[in-house]
Structures are given as structure tokens and as C-alpha cells.
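C-alpha cells please, single chain.
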Amino acid sequence: MSLTGRIFWYFFAASTLLPAQINVLTYQYDLARTGANTNEVILNKANVNPNAFGLLYTYPVDGTIYGQPLYVANVNIPGKGTHNVVYVATENDSVYAFDADSGADGGPLWQDTFASSGVMPVPSSDVSCQQIDPEIGITSTPVIDLSRGSIYVVAMTLENGNYVQRLHALDLATGAEKTNSPVEIQATYPGTGEGGSTLVFDPRNYKQRPGLLLLNGVVYTSWSSHCDIGAYHGWLIGYDGGTLQQVSVYNNTPNGNQGSFWDGGAAPAADSNGNIFLVSGNGSFDGAQNLGESYIKLSSAGGLGVADYFTPFNYASLNGADLDTGSAGVALIGDEAGSAAHPHLMTGAGKEGRIYLLDRDNMGKLSTSGSDSQIPQSVLGDMPSEFGNPAY
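Here you go.
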């Protein structure tokens, strides 16, 4: 989803404008990526209808919006009082803070722009890919840490001919860079795959498409390529939310190629035990080091390590037809929907349109039976390709 140059506000009653009941700090409300605000007490079928729901006002912004806007109530903005704030990031490398309740003047409470003399968003023509067009700046959904008063964003820039990816930590109240911010994203990983004996993260070859994940004080960035161009892999890179020091790196095709994390912009999911769940696209698979075309469970304890995975039985044909399993993300399903045999479930779907219901405790790896019989359900019906995320 993208909105070009403008952020929209909607109302549910002509004379009623009330603040949200919860803060929205991350993609799809929570780390399970359920998309559900189960604390909603104002909106209902009686007041959300064609007669009392419509456009209230819009704010202009300087570029296309691909990430989900976020919301924090009761933010004390220096010199401007306390506001309920919506945070928005654009492909022109700008971050805005808007008052969520009043569009009277149309101006932001603050705006931080990373572009300057000699520094600009990357033209999509530079990477020969128009999936995001005409420029690539901040693509993913940011994440907010209230305990630190920070919003984290990843910005891509072109600086005097050099391509740079940076993680920024901005003050929620002012937009100012926090101490130690920003940090340039660099990484290496041992392997023998495409790109050399030691794989080196090349900032030109990647865009930070999935939303950011904040888990136990660590901000995780995950990476996709530009239109399958060049040497690339799937990377998940973690940074301490306070110091912005790199604390962990994972590469899912170190002895092969491709397998990047698109996920339709969906952020990696995580459970209460610190496990991270994400889905890879077309790429090398060997069931050991290379996990392209797979649902991957990573333990974040002491770094990042593969705890389990699921790969569709027909992964090779999916690879050959460019039917990425990882065209969308996952939603972790609550325990109330589980069973004695499968108490902890999650679901996802990809370009093939097949819906997978997976057991998070035993994801099933790869079946040799010619089917996905080792998982709770694999449903191929009339659903088209999935881009985005399920909701539960």
C-alpha cells in the first residue's frame, strides 16, 4: 500500500472526534501481527456507516508513504503543549509528527528530513527497479519504544555517488536524533554463496521492505532486493535500541543466493519466548544453511539461530515460477484457537495463493511425501496471490 504525497484522516461521526484507546507502536498493533485492536470501545457497526464515516482532512507530505502510520497519545511537544500524535515516514527520507485530532492549520508538529546538500533519496532508476517509484527513502513501517521515547526508522540515501542505509533513532517529542544516532548499516556473514567467501551487505542491492521489529530492546531490520537484481540474500540484522550497536546478524542463504525477506511490508512476528518468525522468497534451499522459500523460526537468545522451519513440498516449482512463499508475512494465532495437538499456531500465504496453518512448536520442515501433510493445514483454493499480512 502507498499514499502519494498526502496522509488522510477519517472520522466516524460528524460531531465526535475522540482519541484512540491504545498506542499504535508497531506494525499491525502487536508482535503477533494480528492486526486486531481488541480494546476498541468506540467504533462499532452503528457509528461506522456511509452516513457518518468519511474524510475529515488531509495533510500534505513530501513523498510516497509505504509504511504504516503509528500513533502515540499525550506526547509533550516542546513549546506546543500535549498532543495525540501520528507519525508518518516518506520515500523522500522525511519523518513527520502530526496532531491526530485537529487539521486546522495542516502543519506538522515537527518534521525531520534526512536529505540535504549532496544527500538525497535513491532514484528508482539507479537500481533498475520501479517497484517503488520514483525514489527510495524510508520504505518500511517504523517502530516506537516508549520507554526510550524513540521512533526508529531506516533511511536509504544517495550521498555524492555512494549508496547508504542508516538506522535512525529520533526523539518522539522533537524529531531530534538520539545519542548514538544514526548508525550506518553494515554487515558480514560467513558463507560460500553468491557474493564471495565472506558475504558482505551491499547497501545498494537492498531495500528495507518489511517493518521494523522491536523485541527485548533490540531493533531488527530485515531486507529484500530490488526486483531480484544483483547478488543478494535474506538478512536480519539486530541493533541495541539504546546504543545502536549491532548485536546480531542472520543470513538465510549463506552458501547459495537470493531468499530475501519481502513479506509485503509485513514486519517479522515474535512470541513471548523471544522467537522470531519470518518468511523468505525465492532462493536456494538445502534444509541446512540455505532456507529460501521457507517459513523460518529464529531464536533470539544469545544472537540469532535457526530453531525450526517449514518449506512447502513444491518449493522447487515455486522457485521456477517466481511464486515467492515470502510475498506476505505471518500472523501468530492466539492459544484459544489451538488444540491439544497444536496449541500454538500461525498462518500465512504467498504468491501461489496457498494458505498454510503451521504449528509454531513443530513447523514441519520439508516433507518428502509430495504434499504438506506434516503441517496442520495446507489449503489451495481460489485465493489470489497474497501480498501483505493475515489478520486474526
